Amino acid sequence: METLRHIVLFVHLIGFAVLFGSWAVQAFGGKREVTRLMNIGLAIAAVAGLALAAPWGLPADVTMNYAKIGTKLVILLVIGALIGIGSARQKRGEGVAPALFWGIGVLTAANAALAVIW
């Protein structure tokens, strides 16, 4: 069961890598727009994160860190909102605001850091 939990954790980090990687390609490629790959990375990270938040396969003496789970969930929802707002602006033919675009990258890096460090 512990091996399965580590695999789900790996998939969770892969989701953030896909999200951050697709953001970095846009950021340093000069286009600065929201892509479908960002949505896919966000979905992978969200589903795997929710699977990790379930208390399955933990030893009896281990407690869940609900503050960490709540913080990461709020950040994930904000990233999703920023991606959604950026996508809507693009569909209307407007550009993505720089603060909105850079917020996606910074919050994604912060969420991945929380997953690893906290």
Automatic annotation (TrEMBL):
Transmembrane segments: 6-25, 37-57, 69-87, 99-117
Protein name, entry field: Fe-S protein
Source taxon at top rank: Bacteria
Keywords: Membrane, Transmembrane, Transmembrane helix
Phylogenetic lineage: Bacteria, Bacillati, Actinomycetota, Actinomycetes, Micrococcales
